[in-house]
Design goal:
CATH class of the largest domain: Alpha Beta
Bound molecules: zinc ion
CATH superfamily of the largest domain: Medium-chain alcohol dehydrogenases, catalytic domain
Order of helices and strands: EEEHEEEEEHEEEHHEHEHEHEHEHEHEHE
CATH architecture of the largest domain: Alpha-Beta Complex
Number of domains: 2
CATH topology of the largest domain: Quinone Oxidoreductase, Chain A, domain 1
């Protein structure tokens, strides 16, 4: 058995590179040589606080779940991919037997095993083993970076699916971090062309405009409701995707969507109870949706991306070798305004 390098989080704020065994694929698994992995907000949260809600880091863990790479070995029952294939990895393995799994809403499966969610190890390593049904072949010309970012893109894609996105929707995305920016790109894949965004951070608004948002507004200095009314010629916003998790922004969505509109809530608030004007919500007959990860997005997103001009790589602001994991995570932790997506490359020599 060979050895490989992996980034191990021992306890909050303590991460380092160690040598561990290269995992051996089981019959239904493939061994993936990891090309690149994104740093997600959840990874940074585990690094900083050692827990997210009921998921607690109790023993050393490898983080990272936004991953792509090359298949270097397959178990004997693997039929859907071959050694040499470039693949994206869907990070959640589900039971396949429960009602949620059987009805296509497998993201709600109670038995889900998700990469980099304690106690399951993630992919900040040179190699990982993955069940072959979670591997999706990248078409020629699609980069490993795009492959890795199919994971956060999937959240936006799922928001579009849940919110019933239509090409003629007038969309507002609140919060222009990686999920918000990618929700805007997912919207384009659904044929939406009128895409507004709000964020208090100037850099994020600038990036949104570079990524094809129609307008990006500053809720700290502009009257967003009035501006959106002007920008849509009085038509109003038909679909809101809330990604900030900011309690005020969540409550404001009811004021920013037009009567009969839809709101998709993606961002998790820091507190459990967020005050909402339910009278206005009922009076305007608003539809609201919650989003937990995603389901059935990888094949559809790959297909749509391959045939579009949408470029999701634009959200990558920093790139690091695996050896520089500490710097990478600290960049994501301390420079939240300007580090949109930090990408790690175990494929670069250590
Ligand atoms: Zn993520
Ligand atoms: Zn299940």
């Amino acid at each position: 058995m060979g050895k490989m390098y992996a980034a191990i989080l021992d306890e909050p704020m303590s991460i380092g590179i160690k040598q561990i065994d290269i995992p051996v694929p089981k019959d239904h698994e493939a061994l993936i040589k990891v090309y690149c992995i994104g740093v997600c907000g959840s990874d940074v949260h585990y690094y900083e606080h050692g827990r997210i809600g009921r998921y607690i880091v109790r023993e050393p863990i490898v983080l990272g779940h936004e991953v792509s790479g090359e298949v270097v070995a397959v178990g004997k029952h693997v039929k859907n991919i071959l050694v040499g294939d470039r693949v994206a990895v869907e990070p959640g393995a589900t039971c396949g037997c429960c009602e949620y799994c059987k009805t296509g809403r497998y993201n709600l499966c109670e038995e889900v095993v998700f990469l980099a969610t304690p106690p399951v190890n993630g992919a900040w390593a040179e190699y990982i083993t993955v069940s072959s049904d979670l591997l999706f072949k990248l078409p020629q010309g699609m980069s490993f970076e795009t492959g890795a970012m199919l994971e956060p893109l999937s959240v936006g894609f799922h928001a579009m699916q849940r919110g019933g996105a239509k090409p003629f929707d007038r969309l507002l995305v609140t919060g222009l971090g990686p999920i918000g920016l990618l929700a805007g790109q997912a919207a384009k894949l659904f044929g939406i062309s009128e895409i507004y965004g709000t964020d208090v951070v100037p850099y994020r608004r600038k990036l949104a405009l570079e990524m094809g948002f129609t307008a990006a507004l500053d809720p700290s200095s502009e009257n967003v409701a009035q501006r959106l009314n002007e920008l849509t010629d009085g038509g109003g916003i038909t679909l809101v995707v809330e990604t900030s998790g900011n309690a005020r922004a969540m409550a404001d969505t009811i004021k920013l969507v037009r009567r009969g509109g839809r709101i998709v809530f993606v961002g998790l608030p820091a507190m459990d109870a967020v005050p909402m004007d339910m009278g206005a919500f009922i009076d305007a007959e608003i539809d609201a949706f919650g989003i937990f990860r995603y389901a059935n997005t990888y094949p559809a997103a790959i297909h749509a991306l391959q045939r579009s001009t949408v470029d999701i790589e634009k959200i990558i602001t920093h790139r690091y070798a695996l050896a520089d994991i500490r710097e990478a995570v600290e960049t994501a932790r301390t420079q939240k305004d300007t580090s949109i997506k930090v990408m790690i490359y175990p494929s670069l020599s250590l």
